[in-house]
From TrEMBL:
Record keywords: Transferase
Organism of provenance: Eubacterium oxidoreducens
Protein's name according to its UniProt entry: Cob(I)alamin adenosyltransferase
A Pfam entry, by short name: CobA_CobO_BtuR
GO biological process: cobalamin biosynthetic process
Domain of life, per lineage: Bacteria
Keyword Acetylation listed: no
GO molecular-function terms, A-Z: ATP binding; corrinoid adenosyltransferase activity
Keyword Cell membrane recorded: no
InterPro entries given in the database record: CblAdoTrfase_CobA, P-loop_NTPase
Amino acid sequence: MLHLYIGDGKGKTTAAMGLALRAAGRGHHVVIGQFLKGGSSGEVEAFSYVPGIDVISYSGLVKFTISMTKEELKSAQTNYPKYFESLVDTAINRRAGVVVWDEILDAVNANLLQVDEVLAAIKKLQDCEIIMTGRNPKVEFIEKADYISEIKKIKHPFDRGIKAREGIEY
């Protein structure tokens, strides 16, 4: 089944990682890929101690596409599909029961991945629970989803200029 955790509020990644932890606790193998993020968040560190969870971080340049030079953007557009393919292959090879693609919706919106390639991967992994997070999902994902949870920001410390805090936001 396909889960979408969407919106502008805090908690999309937290919800996805909570489901991953729950699944691992019940013996499911979990494969997690994070898009547009570095691999140094608290959940990535914690999951290194949890058997059955593979976190595969993107090894290329990680920054907002709006901050990328033309060359960096072109490189990301070439390398993100390869990264995504490696995530899918790992999920198949490890017989994952749960797959988390954190911030993949934003990677699609930034044209780093194409809707068709993501839909093809979903089809390949039809026996998995697939969790996709991010903002502004394409209509094709909405139509395909079995679960859609929207997390809406009502108030956030960032609005007052408070930066993300280690252990809370990352």
